[in-house]
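Sat 14:20. Reprocessing the chain from the morning session after the first attempt stalled halfway. Input below, unchanged.
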Amino acid sequence: MTRVLIVGSGGREHALARRLAGTGHADILAAPGNPGTALHGTNVDLDPADHGSVAEFCRRERVDLAIIGPEDPLIAGLADDLRAAGVDVFGPDAAGARLEGDKHYAKRIMAAAGVPTAGYSDHRDLDSALAALDAATYPVVVKACGAAQGKGVAVCADRAAAESHLRLCFMDDAFGAAGRHVLLEDCLTGPELSVLAVTDGEAYALLAPSRDHKRVGEGDAGPNTGGMGAFASGALVPPGLGATICRDVVEPVLAELGRRDIVYRGVLYAGLMLTPDGPRVLEFNCRFGDPETQVVLPLLRCDFAALARATARGELGAFLEDQAPASAGAPDDWPGAALTDWRRAAVVVVGAAEGYPGAYEKGRPIDLPPDDAGDAWVVHAGTARRDGGLVTSGGRVLGAVGVGAGFAAARREAYGLMDRVSFAGMHFRRDIGVGFTE
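Finished this time. Tokens:
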């Protein structure tokens, strides 16, 4: 039995716990967890920002493996401190997590590695950024350099919109320290693709390709959110794309990190735009995405606990060699294709609180259908227990996940479940995956 501590409290962490529970030989702890993680293990009242307490807990409770979900603890160096305490950790050290914590640094890494990305300029004050708008080509992307939970990016159609977002960053301090340094980027066009590479710094494997929906409203209207839904399907990857992503993105970045003596163990998440000129990197994340994790993990064919522990120990290459042959439909240029069931697809639809991504009220009772452990289930994100009942406690409250033999079937499962979920003020997009055909 592998004793696993999951750090975090959102939908991603519930998805991690659910997948680990499916192995049948993981003893799951979550710090601090949520009502969803409690369905599969034991929640622990620990603050991830208190590294000493987390490390002491791991020593005292003989934790074999820590999986750090959110970006903030990784950026703050929790993985470094747990490794120093002798714990195997799935998640990069602070030096690797800087790829997400400092987007200007990530741009410099990409330049050194020759990774294709959008042209940009960086600015540390409002006057400099406003002056750069005079020479900008619109639309332009205004992006907070720090980690802003997916909300610090705005695609601005004109100068007025760009100036408004810059004022949010520099004058209103809407994103805190993350927004006091910004990038102005060329706007790329094409479909987006999320590619999650599990790596121990040398060997790597790509998990199922996915696509998320960031904007709050249908038709991609309204402001960015942490993610209103996502889907995963092998049909997202045309022939030859896997080889291009490996050659032009994953391998050069891992090589550049290695040249800087950074041993990256965990997930390297590449957010890509598939432009007419080939894939371009929009950003890197240093962890499992949310809500992408909710659709990628259900498609895994392997023992997730064993995969995570092999990665944490630098033994991923040997683990991959022991996997069964790939399923039908697997692309031959996708490293780690044997880890994914390419015959199936998954969809998650996020139910959000009234007002999200702005101000919202907490504590509204939630009504859920029974969990029948079929092809659809609810993932808890911003939920809490109060007086024996389930209530809202965050902006993205929950997700309805559906899996099936193809995208259409998975989508039916997810929306069929979402229509049986309710809380006052709940809103969700009904167009997750609309326009995508297998």
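The radius of gyration is 21 Å.
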